[in-house]
Amino acid sequence: MTPKRRSPLPLLDESGATLQSRPLRKRDPQQPGLPFDPMPDRIEPCLASRRPAPPEGADWLYEVKWDGHRLAVHIDPKGVRLVTPGGEDWTHRFPAIAAAARNLGVNAAIFDGEAVILDEDGRSDFAALQNALGGKRASQEAIFFAFDLLYLDGQDLTGTELSLRRHLLEDLVPAGGDGAIRLSEELDIDADELLAEARRLGLEGIVAKHRDRPYRSGRSDDWLQVECIEGGSFMIVGYEPSDSAQSGIASLLLAARHGHDWVHVGSVATGLSAKDVDYLRKTLDMLKTRKPVVPMKGKGYVFALPTLIAEIEFSGWSEDGNLRQTLYKGLRKIQDNAAVYDMKQHAGG
């Protein structure tokens, strides 16, 4: 049975009308051809820098921040590959997305985007995606929101401005679709109004992208993310054992980057299911080390090598530099070069 696909939560303006992307522009048939560029096996993804408020002005476009797994969809005459930022082939894990990619009618292309599962209100649900993929299973319900086009029919587009890449993307993945591959639509609204609406609807946040910039791998200020609920990826560096807690974990010990070093930022206990605790206890015990990655006070801690990355939601920071009101959302893949929270980068924003 094919799972029912949910629609993303609509953003509304003051009159209650749904906000839509700008009208699609027709591709210019007179656009000159460019020299053939070989299709790359992998492109290092562009990463957004965090900011407390969105930039304003006509130079910026705004999209919903999706909370899922970043993927590059590679299409060529030989077939389709879904590639993680770390270069893993996850085609088998998202069969519906792969099938939809084969049916796009594209000869050769690379799409950048996010694989997500939507909840009943149309919000991306990272925990649901993690549960669907648990134990290396495949997810038929996941959909792919395409937000960039990096290569098309012999042309490397990474050196062109975002406005052109979006123009070509919207030709291939039109707005308003309901299939397994959809367009992450540009939202034509004032930045502050958009952020307020996103917060009202309980979305993860918004992403602002500079229209005139090329696609630059790594983190830069060309893409900026503003989160409605603070969150990030933190390294698990051990746990606090407990005889009363199921499987013996009272909380996970967390660390963030500080340049090339690690700094302890507190712990998390809420959001851990019995299944999570069982897996984490067994895995962290295999990673056990006598010397902690970061010095911390507390008796009976079990320290682990920095290998597992946890996605954490939190309400803010305490005066002593610890996360407040933490919620465990799931594990990130270290092979995907998940952006572990960097205190210097955040302070610089």
UniProtKB/TrEMBL annotation:
InterPro entries reported in the protein's UniProt record: ATP-dep_DNA_ligase (IPR050191), DNA_ligase_ATP-dep_C (IPR012309), DNA_ligase_ATP-dep_cent (IPR012310), LigD_ligase_dom (IPR014146), NA-bd_OB-fold (IPR012340)
Enzyme class, spelled out: ligase
Superkingdom assignment: Bacteria
Pfam family, one: DNA_ligase_A_C
Ranges of residues in domain ATP-dependent DNA ligase family profile: 135-227
EC number: 6.5.1.1
Gene3D superfamilies documented for this protein: 3.30.1490.70, DNA ligase/mRNA capping enzyme (3.30.470.30), Nucleic acid-binding proteins (2.40.50.140)
Catalytic activity: ATP + (deoxyribonucleotide)n-3'-hydroxyl + 5'-phospho-(deoxyribonucleotide)m = (deoxyribonucleotide)n+m + AMP + diphosphate
Start and end residues of each stretch annotated as Disordered: 1-51
MF-aspect GO terms: ligase activity
Keyword annotations of the record: Ligase
Record-stated family: Belongs to the ATP-dependent DNA ligase family.
Record-given protein name: DNA ligase (ATP)
Species of the source: Shinella lacus
Lineage of the species this protein comes from: Bacteria, Pseudomonadati, Pseudomonadota, Alphaproteobacteria, Hyphomicrobiales
